[in-house]
Design a protein that fits this description.
The structure is a single chain. By secondary structure, this protein is an alpha+beta fold. The chain is built from 12 helices and 33 strands. The strands form 8 sheets. Strands 4-5-6-7-8-9-10-11 form an 8-stranded parallel β-barrel, surrounded by 5 helices. Strands 16-26-17-22-20-21 form a 6-stranded antiparallel β-sheet, with no helix packed on it. Strands 15-27-32-29-30 form a 5-stranded antiparallel β-sheet. A hairpin with a 2-residue loop joins strand 2 and strand 3. Helix 5 runs parallel beside helix 6 and helix 9 packs parallel to helix 10.
Length: about 575
């Protein structure tokens, strides 16, 4: 048992000043069998603490339908075994470039702008969730012999809202449910962010990637006393589909880390090890400056983040430079860097001879189809990650006019009378070819990830403004959703086989043999956009627009001997239905 407290100038353990040298590692972005290795890598880099978010939507995909919340406890136990303290950031909002910022679609859909406020319906849902989650945290606090030393109140709230009553309600709820370690808030180093996101009596920290002295000066003007901490030192950054890969010079990052520590501050590297947004859980951002009203910028599957420990768990140049800096503040010699996990012994090519067209997949695995007056949103159809098919017959006795998917989020492949007619996006919602009366139109709409940051957080997906022919709304739209979690070994085994046409959309399946299983990269030459599963484990989204050109396959997912791979292509398949593992 020990006591961790926030002193006048320092963090303290049993009255002894300590500096927190922490690194972010999200348990949900790392295969559980690799937690121990990644945590040892953090320890070897010179860290004494690990920080993690908790994504609500991952653990409660439907109201009251909780899924493996105990994973939080198992991760905290693994961190303790690795000799690390833990900072827990339970949300309810986490950002994290994660779908919907971690908030459940079934909550943000009906509540809209009432999320992240004192609204009683929102707070009631948070309380129900926290009553399930927090026992796994509370029983592992440092004053009970566990590794948990701090718990965050909300997350960067000053970048979003100003409801101090909401923040106070959350802080009181955490204490009521047994949190006895110090609470803290974290916000950008701007006066309005610090004032909007912090509350009296709770430690305020700052998040930034550069200009440490300037940022801490702002924090000191807001909070004259208490230990200084950069709760997110952005030592790398994330990527968007269709954009250039982002990287930060390792030497520049190391110099900023030195500056933070020279200020006498504690630090949390964001990210120390980013991992992967498996399962299609990657979120999205909006461009357009401070108002975030610009085009959707969908996050790639990899969350490598240009972190010191890369997606495969390997040390980078940044790792070695950080280890040198952090080692100067360690209590003793740093542990040896652990041996790296085994890599796939030899490249493997896998043909995908089994095929089910997308219509057939939807028929077998989709939700119920119904006719609606106007196109329903993904939220109304209870689709978190996946797609929706909208179908309508244009009324007859009319000429050819433009077809518009008003308020489309985010993308739709369009078929007119069974023939592919084009792809619509939010920026280009009008079909190139005009559509005549009596035509049957199908729009296969995809969510590319819900916004995870800014005022557009929680926005709905699908055709949100109606389907229009010339200036007239089309009513009587049939809709049917297909969720990613409908793809299981049992359901996929029951799908019928068909002969694919060249480039046909649908689910392709095949097997491959492995001798010497280990970490691998899965390549999809010639494929356009969709999702991949290996042995029933969803690796995430692929997309030919880049910059990500392969998907990380954790070694524990593969097995010696026969393995199975599924590729769900949503637009145009490769001419040769095969994938490569290297």
């Amino acid at each position: 048992m020990a006591e961790f407290r926030v002193g006048e100038d320092d963090f303290e353990v049993d009255g002894r000043p300590v500096r927190l040298l922490s690194g972010a590692l999200h348990y949900f972005r790392v295969h559980e069998e690799q937690w121990a290795h990644r945590l040892r890598m953090l320890r070897a880099m010179g860290l004494n603490c690990v920080e993690t978010y908790v994504p609500w939507n991952l653990h409660e995909p439907s109201p009251g339908g909780f899924d493996d919340v105990a994973a939080v406890g198992r991760f905290l136990d693994a961190a303790r075994e690795a000799g690390l303290w833990v900072i827990v950031r339970p949300g309810p909002y986490i950002c994290a470039e994660w779908e919907n910022g971690g908030l459940p679609h079934w909550l943000t859909g009906p509540l809209g702008s009432r999320i992240r406020t004192r609204d009683t319906e929102f707070l009631s849902a948070v309380e129900r969730w926290f009553r399930v989650l927090l026992p796994f945290v509370v029983e592992r606090q440092i004053d009970r012999g566990g590794p948990v030393i701090m718990v965050q109140v909300e997350n960067e709230y000053g970048s979003y809202g100003s409801d101090a009553a909401y923040l106070r309600s959350l802080a009181d709820l955490l204490v009521e449910l047994g949190v006895s370690v110090p609470l803290f808030t974290s916000d950008g180093p701007d006066e309005h962010m610090q004032s909007g996101g912090s509350i009296p009596g709770v430690l305020a920290t700052a998040n930034f990637g550069s200009r440490a002295r300037e940022s801490f000066a702002t924090l000191r003007r807001h909070r004259p006393k208490g230990p200084l901490m950069c709760a997110e030192f952005w030592c790398g950054w994330f990527d968007h589909w269709g954009a250039e890969h982002t990287a930060r010079d390792a030497g520049d990052a190391a110099r900023t880390l030195e500056e933070i520590l020279a200020c006498g501050a504690s630090v949390n590297l964001y990210m120390a090890h980013g991992g992967t947004s498996f399962g299609g859980w990657a979120g999205a951002n909006r461009g357009g400056g401070a108002l975030h009203v610009g085009p959707l910028e969908a996050d790639v599957t990899s969350y490598d983040y240009d972190a010191p420990v890369d997606e495969f768990g390997r040390p980078t140049e940044k790792f070695w430079l950080f280890r040198d800096v952090l080692g100067r503040f360690a209590d003793g010699p740093l542990p040896d860097v652990p041996q790296q996990p085994a890599a796939l012994s030899a490249p493997v090519a896998a043909g995908l001879p089994s095929f089910t067209p997308l219509d057939g997949v939807l028929d077998a695995l989709g939700g119920p189809e119904a006719e609606h007056a106007v196109p329903p949103s993904f939220e109304e159809l209870d689709v978190d990650r996946g797609l929706v098919r909208y179908a309508v017959t244009v009324p007859g006795r009319r000429g050819a006019y433009e077809l518009r998917a008003q308020g489309l989020r985010d993308l739709a492949v369009v078929y007119v009378d069974g023939e592919r007619a084009g792809v619509l996006t939010e920026e280009e919602p009008v079909l190139a070819a005009q559509v005549s009366g009596d035509a049957r139109v199908e729009l296969w709409a995809e969510s590319l990830g819900r916004v995870n940051y800014g005022p557009r957080l929680g926005e709905s997906k699908g055709i949100t403004g109606g389907l229009m022919h010339e200036r007239q709304f089309l009513h009587g739209v049939r809709a049917r959703g297909l969720r990613l979690d409908a793809f299981t070994a049992e359901t996929v085994a029951g799908l019928p086989d068909a002969t694919p046409r060249a480039g046909a959309r649908g689910l392709y399946r095949g097997v491959f043999e492995v001798s010497g299983a280990g970490d691998a990269a899965l390549e999809l030459p010639g494929w356009t956009r969709g999702f991949v599963w290996v042995n029933g484990f969803c690796l995430g989204r692929y997309w030919a627009v880049g910059p990500q050109d392969s998907l990380y396959v954790p070694g524990p997912v593969l097995r010696e001997g026969t393995n199975e791979v599924w590729v769900l292509e949503l637009d145009r398949a490769a001419d040769e239905a095969r994938v490569r593992l290297t």
